[in-house]
Amino acid sequence: MSEQTKYLLGEDRIPTHWVNLMPDLPGEPLPPLSPATMEPAGPPDLAPIFPMALIGQEVSADPEIEIPDEVREIYSLWRPTPLFRARRLERALDTPAHIYYKYEGVSPAGSHKPNSAVPQAYYNREAGIRKLVTETGAGQWGSSLALACKLFGLECEVFMVGVSYDQKPYRRAMIETWDATVHRSPSDLTEAGRSQASHPSGSLGIAISEAVEIAAGADDTNYSLGSVLNHVCLHQTVIGQECLEQLELAGEYPDVVIGCVGGGSNFAGVAFPFLRRKLREGGDTRFIGVEPAACPTLTKGEYRYDYGDTVGMTPLMPMYTLGHDFVPPELHSGGLRYHGDSPLVSALVKAGAVEAQAVAQTSAFAAAVQFAGVEGILPAPEPAHAIRAAISEAEAAREAGEKRVILFNLCGHGHFDMSAYDAYHRGELTDLEFSEADMEAALASLPETPSIA
User: How far apart are CA 267 and CA 221, in angstroms?
Assistant: First the structure.
């Protein structure tokens, strides 16, 4: 028992500020564009669906933004989260690498998503909003916002991507336990949903369109997004800030920081505080964003202006995209099944500050099962992609005969994903095909915008 496994912080070490990476980004930041004029979007373009406090965070150039006391008090229900040294995995891999993982599955909703859901609900309540409406893929964001709305006395309505709605009935029940309403998307409740009836499996882009349509139609209702936007990435940086302190307790600093990427919130949360240090002070730390091979936005998409939703209601953002019309295959990692990516993460990949990797579905599940067999925790399919990359890095360290400190974000548990694990164990889980032709068709339909190549 002389070897330490868990690195813990007291509640007094919950971060007091969020880290805003915007001022440290390489090059000049590109503005979002208004869908009506194709000119740079300003606060009036966002005010119908977001409170001014979050709009301010979206465009802020301040390096840090103070976390309200009421938000920090709710954070204390689960934060700081533990950092684990994966010693049993290291031994199983016979690697000289030191592997650490930040475990965000201890939150009430079982993932990292409440880190942003709580402040979003707080700022909307302060602005006098009665109800929030959102989308969710795997259900982690929908359950997190339902929890946050319950804590702040707001109503919550969730459009859940159809394939995940069918695959994860107990995630729906969790959302409803916190008094939120859940709809299968595409639905017949919105014009956006009815227009996408030919895609019954749904997508995050379609669900976003439905949620934005509802929010834009009521003065007392706002929209809330669980990833992609700058203010969401900002809120998640509590993860990496805690990691910095915990690794200091361990006497180590990462050579590699890894996170899964769908919209970008999980990766940003663990990586941005370390990235800021590297951008300011230099260093050799590498950063790897890992996505599904069946929805390879960063590795096969184009860096373009595109809508965040399928119908084209949101501002256009500079990002890697497969095209907002692209409907990804029905992979089990519903939280990574998105056509675009965070503009901040995209800019970092474009600048070469972040590496992007794509992992096949069966490879991710094989890594998850291997991890669970030695570390005991059953991962969600989304962070299983990061586990696969971490194992590859540890194996490379073994082959090179060198020590390597690896950090990855285990952003959720897999307790609501047992049907996917069941399919994997029965040999029925397959590697879904990505359609280059569908991507090219979707990209060809993008509107004319300023070139950012």
Answer: 29
